[in-house]
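Reopening this ticket.

The earlier resolution said the output was attached, but the attachment link was broken on my side. Pasting everything inline this time so it's all in one place.
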Amino acid sequence: MIRYLSILGGMIWLCGCGAESENAMTEKAPIQLLTVDPGHFHAALVQKVDYPEVDPQVYVYAPDGDDVDLHLDRIESFNTRDTDPTSWQTETYRGDDFFDRMLSEQSGNVVVLAGNNQKKTEYIHRSIAAGLNVLADKPMVINREDFNLLKESFDLAKTKEVMLYDIMTERYEITSMLQRALMQDDVIFGKLALGSADDPSIVKESVHHFFKYVSGSILTRPPWFFDVEQEGEGIVDVTTHLVDLVQWQAYPEVMLTETDVEILEASRTRTVMTLSEFAAVTQQDDFPSYLDKDMLSDSTIGVYCNGDITYRLKDIHAKVSVKWNYKAPEGAKDTHYSLIRGSKAHLEVLQGAEQNYQATLYIRAKSKVKTYRDNVEKAFAKIADQYQGVELIPNAQGWEVSIPAELREGHEAHFGSVMKAFIGYMEDGKLPAWEVPNMITKYHTTTKALEIAKSE
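Inline output:
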């Protein structure tokens, strides 16, 4: 950092610029990013657009290798695209001591973590201890052993007066937002059912694929992505989003605690992958030695990336599931299913072939009385005011909620929404009061479920 400023100062002096110009050139935006070991493409999506509050100069610290190369290529593609190119400037340090180097230089004030999860909780704790803010991709923790360290990190963040926040993109998916809004309307939804272990009041399932396209190109995944000791099992990875949505929708802005959660059942299964399939998505010809423990034969591995959690949250029962397939059927993509049961209607999101693989929200009315239907259409006007362009389309079971294209932002665009929220929190100097206890509760749920699933 000292060397960088010395060079910049020398350039200004050589240009014969005065003090006023020098101050203008060296003035930084309030938020300066430090991207650490960006092994996941989510690290780049944080920078898919420019933000006035975020300095364009970004410092990247990483071990040398394919992960950092792919990250830098993605940032360059954002800078050079034809439509709305970004203006990021990247200074990269490569070396095995990348994390210590980042801490010693402190070239910025927000550490971005999106990559190998094996040491993520440790990196979070050390960054917070150094007085840095942290914006972390999910999951913040992948095992029960590190869960207490994460809780300590939240306590330390309060003491250090810095922010620790995770990237919950699914809160900005339009059908999830509309489900949440509809749940708050007693005329339409009624009261959230309590459900039972056999018949949960909230059911969410997420289906993903190893082979996929991102920003128009086939996504190259790092080999370690398939090692559950580095990426984390599915039950503590993708389910983080689902558990977050259950909390966010069922108990909006309510502070939750670990004692509000009871894990009723948890399970895990493998997805089998051949060497040729592995090579297609990693560009590696062989399985690395750390996957020996997962070998099912000389040419196949089994990855514990699928899981189910059935649990009680306060008074309600929920079930969340994640499943990974190798490749989606033609025309399909990653899908999300959600069912929320109310006393007057059920809210269901489907994303299958019948919906052209586009998330579609339905209101399944429990009553066909005309008075109820008339009241629903009147009450929906308030939601239509909030989400311009949404409409009700009557059907035999109730209604389909028609959503205009402009409200259907893709997964990649949701990172911009998270960034804008985070920027707002940084400007306020604090997170909403419920966010930290609910993050702790969320990761208690996932790591406790994994512990139970592994003991079965």
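Reporter confirms the inline version is readable. The first strand starts at residue 33 and ends at 36. The chain has a mean pLDDT of 93.
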